[in-house]
Design goal:
Layout lengths: L28 E5 L2 E9 L2 E8 L7 E3 L3 E9 L2 E5 L2 E5 L4 E4 L5 E4 L6 E9 L8 E4 L8 H4 L8 H19 L1
Antiparallel strand pairs: 1-2, 2-3, 3-10, 4-11, 5-8, 5-10, 6-7, 6-9
Length: 174
């Protein structure tokens, strides 16, 4: 074909950087957090793909989600992952699945940023689907605002509801 050149791809330099904090994708969204940052790379019905960067010495809140599960793949650094009562150490190319409703967190105890690709899947993927149990940055909401049920005994409401009945019955006897 006139004007076209054949390209020998074996002679081309790789355009990928050895620096894991540099990407060639175009994020849909980028947000900073006290622990680092995240970029939303792709989103579709029932799934969202994010790139998390956790700075050295930082960690995410101990949290769970009502409506989504997450799959994490470490692409750089060494992550300490709390998953339920277990503590895992994940290095590059290692992964774990965080089930819906499981308490979890990522910690970076190293000197280099930890980079994780997170695939969320579930019925609802909003950032407000986070219930925090512990947070280094003061982001825990009061129990009522977090929609976490209280651990109050079921007997307390019954006892309170019986009192008006006793008073009403005593009033009828007079």
């Amino acid at each position: 074909m006139p004007g076209s050149k054949a390209v020998d791809r074996s002679q081309m330099k790789s355009e990928t950087s050895s620096d894991p904090t540099v990407t060639r994708s175009h994020p849909i969204e980028f947000e900073t957090r006290p622990w680092g940052s995240f970029s939303t790379l792709e989103e579709g019905p029932g799934y969202k793909i994010k790139r998390l960067v956790v700075q050295p010495g930082c960690r995410l809140s101990l949290q769970k989600h009502r409506h989504r599960a997450e799959h994490w793949v470490v692409v750089a650094g060494t992550a300490t992952v709390v998953k339920g009562r277990r503590r895992l150490t994940l290095r590059g190319r290692q992964c774990t699945v965080i089930p819906r409703q499981a308490w979890h967190r990522i910690e970076n105890r190293g000197r280099e940023p930890v980079v994780i690709i997170e695939v969320q899947h579930g019925a609802y993927l909003g950032e407000d689907d986070i219930i925090r149990k512990q947070d280094d940055y003061g982001r825990i909401e009061p129990r009522a605002a977090s929609r976490e049920p209280s651990r109050r005994s079921k007997k307390a409401p019954r006892a309170a509801s019986r009192e008006p009945r006793k008073q009403a019955a005593a009033g009828r006897r007079k």
